[in-house]
Amino acid sequence: MQSSNSNANPESKTLKRAMSTRHLVMLSLGGAIGTGLFLGSGEVIAQTGPVGAIIAYILGGLIAYMVMLCLGELAVHMPVAGSFGAYAQKYIGPGTGYMISWVYWLTWTATLGTEFTAAALLMQEWFPHISMWIWTIIFAVTILGLNLTSTRMFAESEFWLALVKVVTVIAFIILGLLAIFGLIPFHGSESAPLFHNLTAHGWFPQGLVPIFTTMLIVNFAFSGTELIGVAAGETKDPAVNVPKAINAAIWRLLIFFVGTIIVISALLPFQIAGLGGEGVSSSPFVTVFNYIGIPYADDIIRFVIITALLSAANSGLYAASRMMWSLSDQRQLPSVFSKLSKSGTPIIALVVTMFGAIPGLLSEHFAPETIFKNLLGVAAFTMVIVWMSICWSQFNFRRQWYKAGHSAKDLKFAAPLYPIVPILGFIFCFITGLSMAADPEMQAGFIGCLLFIATCYLSHYVFYRDRT
């Protein structure tokens, strides 16, 4: 694999192509199916009502699909580990490419520490006498080890971690549908609930506005699908495997997310969907499993959420380290960051990224709710910025492609309905970003993101403008 930048670091070696479609699909599913679905889905239903939540998740899926189509076209044409950072550099501008790489690094690094802390807190519920820090260190060392070993080992570990979540969601949807149609008993219901809860309080009990105000939560639920683009540079035969993985991942996610929302909404009154109690017990998954009569529902979902957190940390460390490797490969960081181990992993970038997780690790001890909410806001907003850059890059790439005398048929994979898809994808992502600015609890994170973006542009102008 050759770097897209003509000034790429001549001393760096190339990353190994070790991933298959199976790994890519699970990487994408694993990145997207997380605590947002297991814990956050009830909140969306409570705010929008059942039908509103279904519409919000379908809209979120369509936005994600438009962005992933744009990414698929770029990733097949130019399969590099820098992914959207490299695309933005080439098709928007060097400063924007530099900024996007750092923003995506921040997205995952900001949440790494919170993932380890949350997983450790859940373990402490099982083992109250063992310090949270011991679990945090165990998880951090394990995830770092999986990433350092080899790309193949990382991909395989992520496949199995993601599989736990996928199996849980499928079981939840199947058991939920059986309860809805009265084929298995459901607590508090003498006759089959069917779908009367969906419209028991009207189609939109809270009005239409909450559908749009919850779009940041919903869009963030689909974030992680873009990991396919990051992994394209380490994928066997990307022209075949990347489009396959994008289509498979998006449609599975739509089925999983919308299916989950339908089951929760049909079986639980929308006002209590996210109010079952504290922590894991507030998950609508726990409430439904308990009502169906599944023993140890709390423990099952606790285990699943721990695997979800570790899976997110695993793929997050992978993605952030590849962005750092790419910046070094393009000579926008010292060459030591593109140093590869014998097994082909960017060892220095991985270790430095892990140290970047320290602020998240401190969240439990210093104003945890404030720090967590703002870190979540930072991650959601930076993801929106990255998605906007993907749409913009593809729009400009296709314009250049046509100007060079080529047609869409000349591309190995072409996003349909150009230029409608990138324009709509960009506009919807932009609106989602504005919704964050309107949330008082997220304004500190929003301002912090804008300052970080401005700093990236300034540092690129001062230090690197002559190198690109």
TrEMBL record:
Task: Spell out the Gene3D superfamilies in the cross-references.
Answer: Amino acid/polyamine transporter I
UniProt domain Amino acid permease/ SLC12A: residue ranges: 23-465
InterPro entries in the cross-refs: AA-permease/SLC12A_dom, Amino_acid_permease_CS
UniProt cross-references to Pfam families, sorted A to Z: AA_permease
The keyword Membrane appears for this protein:
yes
Membrane disposition: Multi-pass membrane protein
- Protein's name according to its UniProt entry: Amino acid permease/ SLC12A domain-containing protein
Give the classification, highest ranks: Bacteria, Pseudomonadati, Pseudomonadota, Gammaproteobacteria, Moraxellales
